[in-house]
Design goal:
Layout (H helix, E strand, L loop, with lengths): L21 H15 L15 H11 L11 E6 L2 H22 L2 H7 L10 H4 L2 E8 L1 E3 L5 E3 L3 H18 L3 E5 L6 H5 L6 E10 L17 H4 L5
Antiparallel strand pairs: 1-2, 2-6, 3-4, 5-6
């Protein structure tokens, strides 16, 4: 991590190498795609608990993500306390009511119709865990001097992608929730002023009658998302 004693460059040998054959690489890539295409954004959660150790390990994976200047400008708050979840739901739904009552604009609301969302967010209480992702605009040395972080949205976004993949790999389902504004989370969770909440990730097991919108499984084909320059 970024600290005064780690400011100077020092090279070390690459500690880990996969060293797969071409055939093994292709098989691994196909297997990972097969795993990830079974990821679903879920709004219906069961009461089955999830251990803290699982959540910790998934966040540990998120912490391995690359970041601008290796400053690792993120912080995750994992919440299982029912009272906290209730307060977060109430505050988030207040913002969402303003959104759906006209704050979003007709075009945005029309785009959301196939997803079937509204201002009611029971998953924020039903899911056994909520993980709030904070982006750190700056950091502090041990003596209190402030330093700037770089590529903060990009770095935090990559770490959140690692987190979602890790949670899915652990057999859990998630929902990414971005009420706007989310400043209420900073005070509620006791985070410092240099951290900006950017996302709430609901985590748990799907309920027996969980549903997903049909359109959510309609992904763009490869030829629409890839251009090769060989």
């Amino acid at each position: 991590m970024f600290a005064r004693e780690h400011i100077e460059y020092e090279a070390v040998d690459l500690p880990d190498r996969a060293n797969l054959t071409d055939e093994q690489m292709l098989a691994a890539a196909e297997a990972f795609h097969d795993k990830m295409k079974r990821r679903h954004t879920v709004r219906d959660y069961s009461t089955r608990p999830v251990s803290r150790e699982v959540i910790e390990n998934c966040i540990r994976t998120a912490g391995t993500a690359p970041s601008g200047a290796n400053h690792q400008p993120w912080h995750f708050v994992a919440i299982s306390n029912p009272e906290f979840k209730k307060k977060i739901r109430e505050a988030a739904e207040e913002e969402e009511r303003r959104f759906y009552d006209g704050g979003a604009g007709d075009e945005w609301l029309k785009a959301l119709e196939p997803i079937g969302t509204n201002d009611v967010k029971p998953h924020l209480e039903d899911a056994p865990w909520l993980i709030v992702v904070f982006a750190q605009k700056w950091g502090y040395f041990e003596d209190g001097e402030r330093f700037k972080n770089y590529y903060v949205p990009e770095s935090t976004g990559i770490a959140t992608g690692f987190l979602l993949a890790a949670l899915h790999h652990a057999g859990l389902v998630t929902l990414t929730h971005t009420p706007n504004p989310m400043k209420f989370l900073t005070g509620m969770l006791g985070r410092p002023e240099h951290e900006k909440p950017i996302m709430i990730v609901a985590v748990g097991h799907p309920s027996e009658d969980a549903k997903v919108p049909k359109v959510a499984k309609m992904k763009k084909p490869l030829d629409e998302i890839l251009t090769l320059a060989e």
